[in-house]
Amino acid sequence: MGQFTTLTAADGFQLSAYVAEPEGKPRAAIVVLQEIFGVNSHIRSVADRFAAEGYLAVAPATFDRIKPGVELGYTEDDMTAGFELKTAVDALPGAGVLQDIQAAIDHAAQASGGKVAIIGFCWGGLLTWKAACLLTGLSAAVPYYGGGMTAETEIARQPQCPVLAHFGDQDQWIPMDGIEAFKKAHPEVEVHVYSASHGFNCDQRGAYNEAAANLARGRTLAFLAGKLG
């Protein structure tokens, strides 16, 4: 359904992005942020499903500043490789990868002619929260089990758009006390906690939880319909 295009960030850096277009005029646009496994078949399928709902979906390759063309699976070796790439991206100076996400938001707005939401998973969930707090042009944000979102430095941020956050109560990376601290600090954020593990939305992972994924998707679509029109 989709194809790759090239985006240009504010500093001139060019990165790839997977773009899935709906049939007819888009109702709005969604930027989809990858896990630590690249814009792989799962992330492309997420974008395709949003396009099937009438949204223009843009999934920027947020590893491109370090290593272009990354597409990993979900083995232990893939996890190690992805974490190393994430660590390298996080260490970039200045605005780093946030410039690339802003470029995706800007492209989504221009290409769709409508409002833009951002959705991310795992590392992409953390980047979604940062985008909601630091970037411009967003009307909604939906982080899924954003690793690091519940750290004190992230809880201290203030979102500039409505946020819906999904967490799992069996997430080995995000303890419940952190989720409770986040909820207490951000009563304006709609937070849902599922009986599930980290990665519960991904049907290519052992942690996939169909019931939780479907419930979270339904809530996400309703939230987007309300915020994007």
Question: Any idea of the CATH class?
Answer: Alpha Beta
Q: Which stretches of 5+ consecutive residues score pLDDT under 50?
A: none
Structural class label: alpha/beta
Count of helical stretches: 7
Strand order of the largest sheet: 1-2-4-3-5-6
Overall shape: globular
Order of helices and strands: EEEHEHHEHEHEHEH
Question: For this structure, what is the CATH homologous superfamily?
Answer: Alpha/Beta hydrolase fold, catalytic domain
Radius of gyration: 16 Å
Indicate the mean pLDDT.
97
Q: Fill in the CATH topology.
A: Rossmann fold
Overall helicity: 25-40%
The total strand number stands at: 8
The biggest beta sheet is recorded as: 6 strands, mixed
Number of domains: 1
Question: Strand fraction band?
Answer: 15-25%
CATH architecture: 3-Layer(aba) Sandwich
Give the end-to-end Cα distance, rounded to a whole number of Å.
23 Å
Could you characterize what this model shows?
By secondary structure, this protein is α/β, with parallel strands linked by helices. The protein has a single domain, classed as Rossmann fold, CATH 3.40.50.1820. 38% of the residues lie in helices and 21% in strands. The protein is built from seven helices and eight strands; from the N terminus they run E-E-E-H-E-H-H-E-H-E-H-E-H-E-H. The strands form two sheets. It has a six-stranded mixed β-sheet with strand order 1-2-4-3-5-6, sandwiched between helices. Strands 7-8 form a two-stranded parallel ribbon. It is globular, with a radius of gyration of 16 Å.
